[in-house]
Amino acid sequence: MALTAQQLDDISHARGDRRETRRPTVPALEEVLFQPFNVLDHGFVRVVDYMGDDAAVVQAARVSYGRGTKKVSEDRGLIRYLMRHHHTTPFEMAEIKFHVKLPIFVARQWIRHRMASINEYSARYSILDKEFYIPEEDKLAAQSTSNRQGRGEILVGEEAHKVLDILRGDAERTYEHYAWMLNENDDGTVPDTQRQGLARELARMNLTLNTYTQWYWKADLHNLMHFLRLRADRHAQHEIRVYAEAMMKILELWVPLTYEAFLEYRLDAINLSRSGLAVVKRMIGGEKVTQTASGLSVREWNELMSSLGLPSA
Ligand SMILES: Cc1cc2nc3c(=O)[nH]c(=O)nc-3n(C[C@H](O)[C@H](O)[C@H](O)COP(=O)(O)OP(=O)(O)OC[C@H]3O[C@@H](n4cnc5c(N)ncnc54)[C@H](O)[C@@H]3O)c2cc1C
Asked: Whose Cα sits closest to atom 40 in ligand 1?
């Protein structure tokens, strides 16, 4: 379970609380504020707070005194222009703060995005919940033969069952050892009064990487999109991509004009290298270009053909 009854109750109370403000708010985002978007088997992402909206981007770009909004069509045009020309600083004027619950191995990829402020649940201070990520069967795949950082065919039959048994068994066993070493229950009671128990900061070290952790993660809109560009990409590892996909839904609710421009000029767009562009020009000119005559490596050629929806051979 991603959230306990108490946690859901806290969220419900927070959502019931209303304040008047002169600051701009976004009704569609207010609608889902604090609510968890469930991800994986026990994870979630939820918006805790935000500052600014599409108009804040426009306002900063125009350095205006009022809200900056002229007509929606003009704002849309300006946001698309900014995105297209990598004029990024106006997007830094809006910010968003998430609460995320995620497996530790996903957190290790996520934390590489340095342009964010993070505060993680302390396993020195508190006892980690007994919650592990166990992939669904159709997510258990063999190593890709063409991509060293990817997955290939789905595992089937006996091997898939054995893998799931190992994942569950190892996580359960190491958690049992963690609990034994701590010698402390969630409510502070001590199971074995004859033992001292190991410090939390040490007992945690044998936990498996699929154990869930949690953090608050705050980023500005520019850096959020940089994160999403890399992690909502179809090549990103499934387990981080599903978080990015939940955040894409939130991005759409929060800043619909920026979201649209982001899809247009970043996520669903491609960069062409100088040689790649030359290949495209030759093809448009009617030439039948081959990989060997393209000046591209086999890998680059395959990537270009795949982006253009053409066969690589
Ligand atoms: C497909 C893929 C495979 C990856 N494989 C690996 C891997 O094998 N090993 C590995 O270690 N990492 C790997 N990474 C992580 C990757 O190298 C980046 O650390 C991660 O994507 C964060 O990107 P970033 O540095 O642009 O983001 P952020 O840290 O958020 O930084 C945003 C931008 O700020 C600037 N910036 C931030 N810090 C500095 C700095 N110190 N100096 C100069 N400019 C800075 C840069 O312009 C940067 O793009 C992989 C990422 C992807 C998407």
From this structure: 114
Known catalytic residue: 231? yes
Element (H, E) at 214: strand 212-220
Per residue in 139-180, pLDDT (tens digit) is 887 777 777 677 777 887 888 889 999 999 999 999 999 999
Based on the number of CB atoms within 10 Å of its own CB, is 31 exposed (0-12), middle (13-18) or buried (19 or more)? exposed
Amino acid at 288: K
In this structure, which residue's CA is closest to atom 26 in ligand 1? 113
Q: Give per-residue pLDDT as tens, 77-99.
A: 999 999 999 999 999 999 999 99
C-alpha dist (Å) from residue 37 to 43, 44, 99, 122:
9, 5, 10, 23
For residue 115 and ligand 1, the question of a CB distance below 6 A is answered with yes
Closest to 98 in 3D by CA, of 73, 118, 127: 118
- CB of 112 shorter than 6 A to ligand 1: yes
Region for 265 from its dihedrals, namely left if φ exceeds 0, alpha if ψ lies in -120 to 50, beta otherwise:
alpha
Provide the 3-class DSSP secondary structure of residue 302. Answer: helix
Probe residue for ligand 1, chosen from 108, 111, 114 as the CB with the greatest number of ligand atoms within 8 Å: 114
Average pLDDT value for residue range 112-138: 92
Nearest protein Cα to ligand 1, atom 15? 112
Would you give the distance in Å from CA 77 to the centre of its chain? 28
pLDDT mean over 276-285:
97
The phi, psi pair for 65, rounded to 5°, reads -85, -35
| Euclidean distance between CA atoms 100 and 246, whole angstroms | 11
Q: What distance in angstroms lies between residue 170's CA and the mean position of ligand 1's atoms?
A: 31
Atom of ligand 1 nearest to the CA of 233: 53
